[in-house]
Amino acid sequence: MFLDFIDQVTSILNDAVSSAGFEADDMELGPSQHADLSSRIAFRLASVAKQSPKDVAEKIAGEIVIPKGSLVEKVEALGPYLNIWASRNFIEGTVLAIREQKEAFGGNFSEGRILLEHTSANPNGPLHVGHIRNSIIGDTLGRILKRAGYDVELHYYVNDMGRQIAIVSWALGHFEFDESSKPDHAIADVYIKANAELNAHPEKVAEIDKLMQLVEKGDAATIETFDKAVGLAVSGIKETLKKMNVAHDEFPKESGFIRSGDVSRIVEEIKATGRTEIDNGALVVDLKDYGFEKTLVIQRTDGTSLYTTRDLAYHEWKGERADRIIDVFGADHKLISGQLKATLNAIGKKEPEFVIFEFVSLPEGSMSTRSGKFISADDLLDQIKTQAYEEVDKRRPEMPDDFKADVAEIVGIGAVRYDIIKVSPEKSTVFDWKEALDFEKQGGPFIQYSHARACSILQKAKDEGIWKPEEPINAALLVEDSEVSLIKKMAMFDHMLDQCAKELRPHTFAIYARELADAFNQFYRFVSVLNAEDEQLRSSRIALVDCARMVLANTLDTLGLGAPESM
């Protein structure tokens, strides 16, 4: 609904700017503390017109013509700014649109195909706390893009032939595999033992090198052992992702781009640019004109490819199948992602968009799978669920155990996801489960509780026989400040989706979710709903609660959080 408002504002301002004798193709709209929208266009036009921004703003305001039935109420100049207010048509139209469109409200306004890659952790053990930010950012972005209307395919790119996988494959032949453990944890156990063995006996590293050469040459027996190791780890990783409400559509493997010939082909394409040279026996790419002093190695001295080479082939493949390709990478991939993008540009291929995030950690410190010093995501999720159960038990002791367990799982996973996604990707963060599960703070549980509160109000209204969802209501009666504020906040759902889809900054949607929940709670605090004396007004306010329930549910789903009906 807010996107329609912006479109109408843009049209009205375009006409006024033209009538005032100016030219502009961007109205420079943004949020305002004094109105529903504000335009800074007068600042830009002032230098061209050689007039003060204040005079320009007043001239444009004098030419404003608002069509009948518009979503725009008025446009006024305030100093150099043009402030814009929404009309009652906007307020009432939002309520009616939510009631009509329900779960579809605010979405499906974009089109195009997107391939989004996230997580892609090496299958040498379970996901640990350091991985989950990648998974949650990627999954949330996918949900935002899908709800906006894009055709999104989510990828987990599987490293099934690198050095770490060679070590895992070697380890399965030298150490006992614990069949009773979750497979990714059992893989980590033999991987850690193998690294200790290789450190103690460096001469055995040659065995790892040999395995890597064999798999690249297509040796069937070696490939089979690699596939077995990778399959075990990935099966366990998928279980963990499912616990976090994260799912991928495809799990493309690196080896597929070797066997298809794509890697050999892209190496030749890069050579054809004249950028390659031999450096100590390795084939490297010179990217100095792109700002990279360090060359990019694409072939080892023994002729085998690197992860980067295979990644280039993968990105070329993706670029041929999508309008946009998006990667979620950790900060340690910042250099390589820039080199990858520059190389693709050099050979005329579609470049990916990157979301680079700093790492999340626990108060205990950093983690390393190689050394065995890590806290698995499974352990964290189990701990969170236990703590959430204790919190639910404290608040609802009278409820049965299955209720407490169900709510604890929904709230626990929601707390983890929200606490991770609420921080902008470029900022590092420490995950503290006590903070995340604090019902009094405006985190995941607060938003989920707001949805549950709306459900409770509606159930009570039904029980008392004062709410019939199918009956029409009079949205014109919703005039209180807290009612209007809530409606305007709900109307912004599509705008927030659009902004996040364009800027790839999902934390802003998390902020919106918190503000929406707060607006709903302020509304319920300041106006009487079930006890409103006027029957029509009461029906309209109950309908507004129902609208809030639907938009809160849509918002929670977009963030990958459950929407409990009772807490």
From TrEMBL:
CDD domains: Anticodon_Ia_Arg (cd07956), ArgRS_core (cd00671)
E.C. code: 6.1.1.19
Sample GO molecular function, one term: arginine-tRNA ligase activity
Extent of motif 'HIGH' region: 121-131
BP terms from Gene Ontology: arginyl-tRNA aminoacylation
Key word Cell inner membrane present: no
Subcellular location: Cytoplasm
Recorded catalytic activity of this chain's protein: tRNA(Arg) + L-arginine + ATP = L-arginyl-tRNA(Arg) + AMP + diphosphate
InterPro entries xrefs: aa-tRNA-synth_I_CS, Arg-tRNA-ligase, Arg-tRNA-synth_N, Arg-tRNA-synth_N_sf, ArgRS_core, DALR_anticod-bd, Rossmann-like_a/b/a_fold, tRNAsynth_Ia_anticodon-bd
First-level EC class: ligase
Domain Arginyl tRNA synthetase N-terminal stretches: 7-86
Keywords: Aminoacyl-tRNA synthetase, ATP-binding, Cytoplasm, Ligase, Nucleotide-binding, Protein biosynthesis
Ranges of residues in domain DALR anticodon binding: 447-567
Keyword Endoplasmic reticulum part of the UniProt annotation: no
Pfam families listed in its UniProt record: Arg_tRNA_synt_N (PF03485), DALR_1 (PF05746), tRNA-synt_1d (PF00750)
HAMAP family, A to Z: Arg_tRNA_synth
UniProt protein name: Arginine--tRNA ligase
Species of provenance: Methanococcoides seepicolus
